Amino acid sequence: MAPPGPAGALPTSAEPLSRSIFRKFLLMLCSLLTSLYVFYCLAERCQTLSGPVVGLSGGGEEAGAPGRGVLAGGPRELAVWQAAAQRKRLLQLQQWRRRRPPASRGDGEEAAWEEESPGLAGGPGGSGAGSSVAEAPPGTLALLLDEGSKQLPQAIIIGVKKGGTRALLEFLRVHPDVRAVGAEPHFFDRSYDKGLAWYRDLMPRTLDGQITMEKTPSYFVTREAPARISAMSKDTKLIVVVRDPVTRAISDYTQTLSKRPDIPTFENLTFKNRTTGLIDTSWSAIQIGIYAKHLEHWLRHFPIRQMLFVSGERLISDPAGELGRVQDFLGLKRIITDKHFYFNKTKGFPCLKKAEGSSRPHCLGKTKGRTHPEIDREVVRRLREFYRPFNLKFYQMTGHDFGWD
Ligand SMILES: Nc1ncnc2c1ncn2[C@@H]1O[C@H](COP(=O)(O)OS(=O)(=O)O)[C@@H](OP(=O)(O)O)[C@H]1O
């Protein structure tokens, strides 16, 4: 039997005391470690709250643990993470801005992108969910100051007036890679002398990969516009929303009538001489619809492949179909689909189930989709006859039969 060593002999009497101290020490150590762990978890959670939602390093990071990637990654991962965080915050700001009621609308022709609940179409809308600064997402101030940059537009909706240009722009804005100025800038027709820097300053900020857009329907009939846009960039993509020129003329007249109820009748304005049936082509409502003539000017400066012609009629009957073509033309992923639209029976037009940044349905405002006055059938017939050769020429030039005849 081995003799008891000093270690075995001495502590015999003091053993219970030492064990109790040891146990207490162990308990304290455990609580300390637990507190440290809880503290660490909380700190890490805070980081992930403002970080990107999906794995970003490409190194198989799991969604839900992005913060860990940041801690473990090198400068490249950090840069990627920061870029993604910046993009996310900019998108948040963009969504928040879209929810605000728009400021001034160019020449006053353009009503705001009003919000209407299903069944309430035609109401003044513009309730503008999210109009208060308190609702701005965190980091808004920084974004307002310096994130993203303003670019000249790479794509412009150049016309035509009353074709459905507002609907197209507002539908396109649902796309996360499209940023557009709300009001019509009228730069290439009315404000060209203000210079490109002024124009660029009107644009919203964008990040890499986002397209800047604007719409000013009067460009299509402005003689100087093609050369001016080409001088800005000959690569600018041009979109024209066209609509049956007769309906377009009546829509144009309806708009003027709403502002000046004392103007002559449509029938009187249409003819230079009603007895001879000579059409007054100097009346802008008639002139704008001679699409083939206006298009000739554009084709002196742009190849036809750089222009997309959207059917105003199909934009109403099949908005997703037309938006598909537009997204392809702009080189965008097809994100806007039929899932985004519903037909609002009260309004009589397709509306967005929810615009970007809002959970409520959105229809265009009261000034879009007005009831037209009844026009003398004989006048309509005469106008159709007048437009027919120009329409056929236009179909030939664009390679697309719009079916107006
Ligand atoms: N979804 C939807 N909702 C409401 N209205 C729609 C829509 N899609 C196309 N339209 C048609 O757009 C016409 C107005 O065209 P614009 O926006 O180009 O007008 S403007 O030139 O900017 O004033 C407008 O013309 P009117 O019907 O004469 O008012 C509409 O027919």
**Portion of residues within helices:** 40-55%
What does the largest sheet look like? 5 strands, parallel
According to DSSP, the number of beta strands is 11
The sequence of SSEs as H and E is HHHHHEEHEHEEHEHHEEHHEHHEEH
Number of helices: 15
- In the predicted model, the low-confidence regions spanning at least 5 consecutive residues are 1-14, 41-82, 99-109, 111-142
Ligand kinds: 3'-phosphate-adenosine-5'-phosphate sulfate
Distance between the termini: 117 Å
CATH class type of the domain at 145-398: Alpha Beta
In the sheet with the most strands, the strands line up as 3-5-2-6-9
Q: What sort of overall outline do the alpha carbons produce when their principal axes are compared?
A: elongated
* Overall pLDDT level: 78
What does this 3D model show about the protein?
By secondary structure, the protein is α/β, with parallel strands linked by helices. It has a domain at 145-398: Rossmann fold (3-Layer(aba) Sandwich). It is 43% helix and 10% strand. It has 15 helices and eleven strands. The protein has helices at 6-9, 15-50, 66-72, 75-99, 140-146, 165-172, 196-202, 225-232, 245-259, 266-270, 284-287, 291-299, 312-317, 319-329, 377-398; strands at residues 149-150, 155-159, 178-180, 205-206, 211-215, 237-242, 271-273, 278-279, 307-311, 341-344, 349-352. The strands form four sheets. The protein has a five-stranded parallel β-sheet with strand order 3-5-2-6-9. The longest helix is centred in the first third of the chain and has 36 residues, at 15-50. It is elongated. The model is unreliable at 1-14, 41-82, 99-109 and 111-142 (pLDDT under 50). Residues 109-110, 161-167, 217, 251, 254, 315-316, 349-350, 364, 368-370 line the site of 3'-phosphate-adenosine-5'-phosphate sulfate. Keywords: Disulfide bond, Glycoprotein, Golgi apparatus, Membrane, Signal-anchor, Transferase, Transmembrane, Transmembrane helix. Residues 120-129 have a biased composition (Gly residues). The active site is at residue 162. It comes from Callithrix jacchus (White-tufted-ear marmoset). Residues 95-134 are annotated as: Disordered.
